[in-house]
Amino acid sequence: MTEKKSMLDGQKQYHIGLEPDDVADFVILPGDPGRVEFIAGHFDEAREVAFNREYKTYTGTYKGRPVSVMSTGMGCPSTAIGVEELANIGVKTMIRLGTSGAMQEHTRVGDLVIANGAVRQEGTSLEYMPIEYPAVGSADMIFALEQAAKEKGSTYHIGVVQTKDSFYGQHDPDSKPVSYDLNQKWEAWVRGGVLCSEMEVSALFVVGNYRRVRTGALLVIYGDQSRKEALNKETYLDAVSNATNIILESSLTIDQ
């Protein structure tokens, strides 16, 4: 049985506004369109190739290797659309670069998390695979990110992250009618060793695996809700810059 192909395979994509020649095979995926130009500034050269809805894209090279960066917006629905349409035009590797909130005593603000799996506390991936199906990243990408992080001397952790649909369901659970469920699950994730909380990784991993593309995720721990700590603007940009450099270095070890 052959896998059904999209009607837009190889054509200009409806949402992201890209064609095959617009992007490299290796794409970095931040959420915020405002972060795209900053990340592209770490390339040797880069140009804007599209900006439609929440999807802003720059393409260039890093040490001779073609690379692109495209924002996905916030949350799993827009991330899944981006992954689908990038896969339609031949992208082979997609790496999320995002922010997250700490969930463990040893995960501190400014640290990095390399996600090897994600809790699927969101609805998008259920339209791809049953809940029993794991959301896991590609082993070779996890290894490449770890090696690059080690070489940079960065403080990093590898493990499971939580992907959620509601930002305020986490930050103000007691005001919600289902507070009992939100608090109970949060406690379970913490006791289970989940490292941090964010809003896109599980969709990237599930949809990426279904579409047979390589996936990974490198997250900056931006805040710690229990300690009431957060990065300021300067330290945040330093952390994103460091994460960008790690991803770019990892790209050099990944086949085109």
Walkthrough of the structure:
The chain has a five-stranded mixed beta barrel with strand order 5-9-8-6-10. The chain has 256 residues and is an alpha/beta fold. 47% of the residues are buried. The chain has helices at residues 36-40, 76-88, 139-152, 167-171, 179-191, 201-210, 233-251, and strands spanning 26-29, 45-52, 55-62, 65-70, 93-102, 112-121, 135-136, 156-164, 196-198, 214-224, 229-230. The chain has one domain (20-251): Nucleoside phosphorylase domain (Rossmann fold). 31% of the residues lie in helices and 29% in strands. It is globular. It is built from seven helices and eleven strands. Strand 10 and strand 11 (229-230) form a beta hairpin.
Please give a handful of descriptors for the protein shown.
256 residues, alpha/beta, Rossmann fold, 29% strand
Largest sheet: 5 strands, mixed, barrel
What is the CATH-assigned architecture?
3-Layer(aba) Sandwich
Low-pLDDT stretches are none
Structural class: alpha/beta
Radius of gyration: 17 Å
Helical residues, percent: 25-40%
Which percent range describes the beta-strand content?
25-35%
Strand order of the largest sheet: 5-9-8-6-10
Mean pLDDT: 95
Supply the CATH class: Alpha Beta
